[in-house]
Amino acid sequence: MKFSPLFWPIQFKNGIIYILDETLLPHKLTYIKAKNYQEACRAIKEMKTRAVGQVILVMYIFLQLLEQGKKKDLVKVAQAINSTRPTLSFKFLTDMVLGWAKSGAPLDKCITGFLEGLKYSRIKQAEEASKLIKSGDCILTHCNISGLLPLIGEICQKQGKKISFFATETRPYMQGSRLTAWELKQAGFDVTIITDNMVAAVMSLGKVNKVIVGADHLAQNGDIANKIGTYGIAVLARHFNLPFYVLCPPASGLKSGKDIKIEIRPDIEMLEYQGLRLAPIGAKGYYPAFDVTPNKLITKHIHLNVGTVLNSRQKCPRRGQF
Amino acid sequence: MKFSPLFWPIQFKNGIIYILDETLLPHKLTYIKAKNYQEACRAIKEMKTRAVGQVILVMYIFLQLLEQGKKKDLVKVAQAINSTRPTLSFKFLTDMVLGWAKSGAPLDKCITGFLEGLKYSRIKQAEEASKLIKSGDCILTHCNISGLLPLIGEICQKQGKKISFFATETRPYMQGSRLTAWELKQAGFDVTIITDNMVAAVMSLGKVNKVIVGADHLAQNGDIANKIGTYGIAVLARHFNLPFYVLCPPASGLKSGKDIKIEIRPDIEMLEYQGLRLAPIGAKGYYPAFDVTPNKLITKHIHLNVGTVLNSRQKCPRRGQF
């Protein structure tokens, strides 16, 4: 199986953590080297990695610490990780690691076991998604699902299904164009970029027939939060009678989408792009980074093999479990 | 009444045509000087002006020609105008002028009469639109309606109605940000820019309660063609139960939206922005410049005072008619 660099964007080799710098994609494929937790935390602060990359990075930070014989610094490092991003919570991850340590479990095995479980569950998730796809399908996607889409494509190809993709560019940060179109093209798939406002046109013209997106948050009632623009695509999919599938993380404790706090980011991030001023000087913008898609618009949630990963959160998983 | 520079973007003074260079907005407010029809046609070719600006410019080209005592060149100049843009038809305008000339009517009076009628009808159209607006409304708009929106706002203000605006940035050419947000802010209105994929979010949050857009084409059955993205907004407006109003040009002879030919533009125009590469090298895009919104999604068409303008097309209008 080939993997997109975005599927597992962090590597840990010979004591050094290699972090894929997603801000330089698609023009440069560069890894930042982190020799210690301070350097790794800086990469999180500067948003060099995102989504699953952050989860993997947090776990490798602890693994590196153990290799350096600094188990005594666990709590200090957990605090440093938790203070990297004001709006993003890594606390469930750091608490899990501290819990394993407290219980006296072999910490390095717990961490590598968790990461293996995560990788295995993500592959299973891609396999589940591939069952929903027929030969000839053209999948519309939005933002980036960290390497799952090329994997779904590869599984489909092995099953003899011919598929192609449309990717929204995903303003303002362009993850659809910079990451998704890039990784799909790298993997040899037919992918066409559209601006975010072309979705109704391509649906009405029959150019796409299914939607697959990811989710940053899954509430108990099935509502999801995902990159801004997802909600609109879900409404359009319903209008044009197209299935709308969501690759989900494990459900959080929140009851419904109404309980998910949406991050409002500085408008400068949408009024400029890479230093180029897009809007009139002095104009104001409104930039909610995510929106909430209600459960009723979702044809099917494709769950992460929750049993495996959630169990691994409760207690140190044994290799045999995966 | 104050007018946005975009309401009447072409001026004719002392024998020279002044063409507002819309490609330089919002950072520079510059007029190109055209001393003859060749220079004016070049400005059309290079897309320095658009929409109503092109109609006004074509008429001023003929007026300039008459002032230069070159009435004998009418047919040649009409041909030059018609060959400026492959996909845009100015033929109904040039045919109208040639028709007036053939009938022996006083051509300069016909042209100025037509332009006065156009201006008057557009003001009437803004007045009609203002009747649909209540104090406290926040209007979502898309692309640019050539100065009509600030005019509607001004009329509302005179009626004591307080209104504000949200403008989609309108990728890929950014007319919403560059032109609409600019002209509304210039006129002193509260306007907030959003990226095109934030429409569902702002509608679901109740931040906007009405939609007003323009149209490039109105078919006999009420379907419209307008800047790409309009269709999606219409579907979302229906989903969130918001009225969707369209400021229309006179209806064409086409039966329905299905008969409107949609211009597919080079994908380089969306994969780059002002020389900055947005997409991976080698990636492909799909760029339909317009989409067709079906009549059933339109709450109300706000027509250009068709009687006046269409009559002025048939025969040279007299001043008293306006």
Number of strands of chain A: 15
Given as residue ranges, the uncertain stretches of chain A (5+ residues, pLDDT < 50) are 310-314, 317-322
CATH class bucket of the largest domain in chain A: Alpha Beta
Can you give the helix content of chain A as a percent range? 25-40%
| Spatial order of the strands forming the largest sheet of chain A | 6-5-4-7-10-15
What best-fitting shape of chain A do the alpha-carbon axes yield?
globular
Multimeric state:
homodimer
Which CATH-level-2 architecture of the largest domain in chain A?
A: 3-Layer(aba) Sandwich
- The tally of helices of chain A reads 11
Mean pLDDT reading of chain A:
93
Q: Evaluate the radius of gyration of chain A.
A: 20 Å
State the CATH superfamily name of the largest domain in chain A.
Answer: Translation initiation factor eif-2b, domain 2
Distance between the termini of chain A: 18 Å
Count up the domains of chain A: 2
Characterize the largest beta sheet of chain A: strand count, sense, and whether it forms a barrel: 6 strands, parallel
Structural classification of chain A: alpha/beta
